[in-house]
Predict the 3D structure of the following.
Amino acid sequence: MITEDALPTYQSMINTLDGVRDETASSPSPWAVWTRSWTAEENRHGDVLRTYVYLLGRVDMLMIERTEHGIENNAYLGFNEKRHEIAYARNVEKLLEVDPNGAMLAITNMTRKRIVMPTHLVYDGLDPSLFEHFSVVAQRLGIYTAHDYADILEFLVGRWELEKLEWLNCDGRHAQEFVRGLARRIGRLQERAEERARGMKPHGMRSSWIFNKDVSL
């Protein structure tokens, strides 16, 4: 919810990019139209999630607000997620068709850096390691794990047929080699991390999001 709520502010960053600028918020260019639609849709997602969490009554909405403001201050300043995924995937497919070497290098560059959500900047004013703690809880509950990340990578490598690309130059082939087996390597690293975690004694933390109740890590 925090990410969805803050996403519309990232349009400010997108508007600084050549070919995407929308200085009047009414540009007829395809990218500008798509960006406006995307941010509006993400904003609706945030509204739905915020209403649900509020009505649930188990979350400290004041601390959620403080956390969101922290993201927006540190930010990089469709009708559903499936359509977003399709749009992103087709964009990359076209890039691979037009410039396979450049696209292959870009994909490898992103996977080397690791893809993180803007929520890695979350801060509630109390816990400087909030995102790390949030990630541990999500992993423990199986909401989103490195295995999920590896599955997504494997799916995209197959969809874009990255292992079958031919006529790549030297840099492109090196990038292709890196991508091969990346999902399996991530999976193995996750398995080792899980083994280490099982050998550690559990410890707790207090979460401001749920009225400072103890959360087991």
Summary: DSSP finds ten helices and two strands in the chain. The first strand starts at residue 204 and ends at 207. The two ends are 21 Å apart (CA to CA). The beta strands are 204-207, 213-216.
